[in-house]
Amino acid sequence: MVESGKISASQAGKLLYLTVIPTAILTSPAMIFKVAKQDLWISPILAWSGLITVFIALRLHRMFPGENIIQAGERIIGKFLGKMVGLIFPLFYLYLNGIVVREYGEFVVGALLVNTPLIVVLGSMVLVCAIVVRGGIEIVGRFAELFLPAFITLFLLIIVPILPDLNISNMLPVMGEGIAPSLAGTFVLQLWFSEFITYSFILPFVTDQKNAAKSIMFALGAVILTLVVSNLATLLLLGGLTGDYAYPFLILARYINLAEFFTHLESLFMAIWVLGAFVKICAFFYVTVLSAAQWMNLSDYKPIVYPLGFLLILVSLWVAPNYQEMTRAISTSVNLSIFTVFVAIPVLLFGLACVKKAVHKNKNRR
Amino acid sequence: MEKTKRKTVPLLLALSLCTFWLAGCWDQTEVNDLAIITAAGLDLTEDHQLELSIKINVTSSSGAQQMGGSSDPSGGGGGQSIVRSVKGKNMADAASKLQQVMTRKVFWGQDEVFIFGERLAKEGLSEPMNFLLRHPGPRERANLFVSKGSAKAVLELDPPVERSVADALRSMAKERTGLNITMKELAQMMTGKANAAVIPLVEIKHTQKPQDSFPFIHGTAILKNGKMIGRMNAAATRGILWLRNEINRATVTVSPKNSEGTVSVQLLRGQTKLVPHIHGDDWAITAQIDAQDDIIENTTDLDLTNPQHIEVLKSELQADINRRVRTALTQAQKKMKADIFQFADAFYRQYPKEWNRNKGRWDEIYPKVEVRLQTNVKIGKSGLIGQNLF
Amino acid sequence: MKWAAVLGITTILVIITLREWPKLRPEMKREKAAFAILTILDGTLAFLLVFYPDLPGPTQGLDAMTKPLVKFFGNLMAEWSG
Q: A9-357 is classed in which CATH architecture?
């Protein structure tokens, strides 16, 4: 066993919530608005990709208790093919995490620390995350538990004071062009909802398995609710401008003005962003390290944490020459490959497992 | 004991090293290194250059306070603020040149007022707006104005009551006797379906003593496709406020028929709802205006405790509101053909499919849209006395 | 500047190795190999990126792989959202 730590089901749920939500809040309103227009808040409700990945993570774990999707895959399609598929996951998590780290860095540098070199911002974040990941799943889970209340408080501190400035008529007409635009928006959103497959890697370390399903469904519901609220708030404030800002939710924080006194709150948003990105990077990094160690049959993943962390910094600088190129890639090729790795491959594996089980049953009956 | 000591020393060393990082090396900013802009003005010069003028509050470093008065005799309110201006090819060019004439780092974060000169507004505001929205410094909530004459002249004023000209303009905009347009709202209007916008117009009230001159909001600048195409006076602006549902404070004086003298009422709250209808090719808007008024003065012989007299007054008030709204409507709809009331959005919200079919023809349709007014005035308190006593 | 980067990268990798290597017990052969391979990979990639910053990255690879599909879905999305 590579990991000896254990976390509770509620910690796992909180971890998954904080893994999915931070980057979604930051960029999803602008990205969905481009396809769904004023129906952008309906898209999170139709989040099929979240349901699929959560369902598969849970069912696969019930079929193969104590094993994550890679280990289960080796059982389903054989050692050799399983290893091939198993290599995709650590590589893809590393790549995806590179994008997240870069997004974090670009935002901090672009909106706050304009003169600080990107590498310093990225490097310090990855270093902290590496230290946490080296501590194991327990530390990662506890950080999620620790930061969740802070995250939600800060989120509400942005949403509540902006309420007087919201203009309900911005959301009309609801579904003026049918459901198609909001459905198209879900294909943008699956970028984030598919990340729920990460639960498959956390599930084996959950102590109270009977609560696992409940807590993850709760996390999924919370993600949907948060996205509906944040997308709605940005829409009601900015209207047709939502798609024109790179970070619409930041504008929300900047626009707050309570009694000419409570103003200039973008630092609140910065705090949310740093907290959220921290947990997200930790979770992805942990999965990278864990699945890489399992793939190489190591007895311990601790030795490869720092080398992989260094690699993570390199990848984050390597993913794209600039921010524009990265945003373009995120909405095209990255979106599609996330769908392939996080949805299509698990669905295939699960389908095969079901077929195998049925065949096995038939044989036994004869 | 020995072991803990050996651990403590590196720990302390590491902690003290951390303090270097906490200062945020590359991005450290000290307040007394900043030139804090409180208001900015943009003008177009004769030779088609952009002139950017800024008003800055001098945050003096310690000890400079005594010197301030003697070395800087120009400012009116104690030499606290100064105006600087630079010229450039466009907004970004001017903004970067600004740093060259300043000894301190230019800081946009507290700039709550932007004034565009009338000439620039006529040439088009898209270019400067592009810079202001893109740059992370200026606030989306900053108030915008168009000045009659040059914006720089407005900035150079030091109105006697308020702390600075920026404060004076902001508080006037907030009182809502005229419009109150923020940068976000202008961007929304300029990119919206109607493609027309309104910005409050600022004029300078000259007094005998030049240092007592002050700016005040007088009328509205009308923009279409990002360019100023006309202006409306203060009376028509009331109509704009009614139709845009931004009315806030108003005192109306009417002289009812068949009686001498006047009645003044104060608006308590007013609300307008635009209800669009499309029947075939007929596009119409019903503006449902609801107002609640309090009587504050009555010099007529009407007895305002008498319901019948109240009815008379009501219809007078409704006619008054309708007259104002019609004035604004005729000017905007028939003369300037600018959809400053965002009828386009109202139609889109109610009839998205029809709108999408006809959005290319909106410029044609708009002047023909029939506007019906359903004005309903309620009269609340009549004050402490009923009939005119004198 | 480039040589400063090389020096910095080397220093970081040496520090990582000095911290981690003593913790690996002699019998942990696989772990030692994994650590060595990853560290060498780090160094190679880092130096490559320092000298050839425009080295085609993983994103370009994904772009190439998903090109036809991206085109297809792009058209589909454009149709759906009107």
A: Up-down Bundle (1.20)
> How close, in Å, is residue B132 to chain A by CA atoms?
13
Each residue's pLDDT tens digit, A8-32: 999 999 999 999 998 888 888 888 8
Asked if pLDDT for residue B64 goes beyond 80, the answer is no
Contact, B26 vs A113, CB < 8 A? yes
CB A181 within 8 A of CB B352: no
CB contact under 8 A, C20 and A303: yes
- The verdict on residue B317 lying in a domain is yes
Amino acid at A61: H
Chain A positions in Cβ-Cβ contact with residue C57 (cut-off 8 Å): 318-320
Pair B182, B273 in one domain: no
State whether B195 and B140 are in the same domain: yes
In a domain, B18, yes or no: no
Can you say whether the dihedral through the CA atoms of A361, A362, A364, A365 is positive or negative?
Answer: positive
Domain hosting B172: range is 31-61+71-232
Nearest to A298 among C19, C31, C42 (CB): C31
Q: For position B242, which CATH number holds?
A: 3.30.300.210
Q: Are residues B238 and B227 in the same domain?
A: no
Q: Virtual CA dihedral for B373, B378, B384, B390, nearest 10 degrees?
A: 40
DSSP calls for A12-46? HHHHHHHHHHHHHHHHHHHHHHHHHGGGTTTGGGG
B150 and B264 part of one domain: no
> What is the complex's ipTM, to 2 decimals?
0.88
Which residues are CB-neighbours of B309 under 8 A, at least 6 positions away?
A: B302, B303
How many Å apart are CA B29 and CA B96, to the nearest integer? 18
Q: Within this chain, do residues B174 and B250 fall inside the same structural domain, yes or no?
A: no
Does B28 have pLDDT greater than 90?
no
| Residue where a domain terminates, one of B204, B232, B260 | B232
Residue B301 domain-assigned (yes or no): yes
Q: Which residue has the tokens 């003044």?
A: B264
Residue B21 to residue A172, Cβ atoms within 8 A? no
The Cα A104–Cα A100 span in angstroms is 6
pLDDT at residue A127, rounded to an integer:
92
Please tell me whether residues B371 and B361 are part of one structural domain.
yes
The nearest alpha carbon in chain A to B184 belongs to A238
Please state the domain count of chain B: 2
What number is the average pLDDT over the span B260-265?
Answer: 80
Give the chains touching A; criterion: ≥3 Cβ pairs < 8 Å.
Answer: B, C
Residues B97 and B210 in one domain: yes
**Whole-number mean pLDDT of chain B?**
79
